[in-house]
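Researcher: Last one for today. Full complex below.
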Amino acid sequence: MSAVRSALVAVWEFVAGDDWRTAVGVVIALGLTALVAAAGIAAWWVTPVAVVALLALSLRRELRGR
Amino acid sequence: MSAAEWGLAASVFAACAVEAVEALTIVLAVGSTRSWSSAMTGVGAALVALAALVAGLGPALTQLPIDVLRVFIGGLLLIFGLQWLRKAILRSAGVKALHDERAAYELETAAARAAGRRGASFDSYSFAISFKGVLLEGLEVAFIVLTFGANQHRLGLAAAAAVCAVLAVALAGVALRAPLASVPENTLKFAVGVMLSSFGMFWGAEGAGASWPGSDAALLAIIPAVLLVSIAMARALRRSMAVAAARDDSSAPGGTSPHDDGSAAVAGREAIGA
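Model: Here's the assembly. Have a good evening.
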């Protein structure tokens, strides 16, 4: 069991790196894109807006931590 | 080759070259101070492990339905891309130190010398350090090869671009017999971050059900747009770091200042609203 847990932790750390909030933000952004598209509204703009916001927030967090 | 395939090959080549430069530094350090044969055995073992990973997971990924594959791969590329881009912007703005291959080489060499005497034939230290270095630096590249290759059903092209990058870096390392300190690592990392984020955004949104205006041609607008936004963020950050440094200098001999903590990062925070 601990081996499975270690493997899952290693995968999470590999994917999320040192900024898990950005990883979660990407998942939310893609989910939001799917919801907007399913509602029949043009959804291509959601991800670019989210990416700019996520990058700015990530930089802000990095500076706050210094 | 189509524009998307050129983009795939260029992204994989640049990402692989950057990681190969870092792996080369580690291998050169242990090889030159301890045992070349053991270090090269470690490199070979790591490359076999990475190739097995690509060969094993690649065909499995291509079996997924295209929309699931795109949203999964797009999401991963976006997560990786934003991480590369954030670090490249921070380095470019002077907030984070640039990666120094020569310093890394000296550090690794000192550690190798301090690790004790090596055995007569096989040096397990050289093997382990080379194996770990190449495997860890290569994992992200293997992932990029897999995701780009599987999504465009051009796993061979992605793998070929990766092999070319490794060979180019290895040949340069053999010719110079020194760490490749003059490779513009941060510029390459910036470029890779832009490409990964752009492709991730394109495929992720498409997989989630969005339709890009102009279809595949949208990439020709997305890539320059991501590049421009990233450059603008780096410039804004650099400018405010300079302003903060100047304020710190002028208020240093005992005066009060809004940046009394002496940190240039404070004004950097203001630039991005922190």
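The interface with chain A takes residues 71, 74-76, 78-80, 82-83, 85-86, 89-90, 95, 139, 197, 200-201, 204-205, 207-213, 218, 222, 225-226, 229-230, 233, 237, 263, 265, 268-269, 272-274 of chain B (CB under 8 Å). Residues 80 and 161 of chain B are 19 Å apart (CA to CA).
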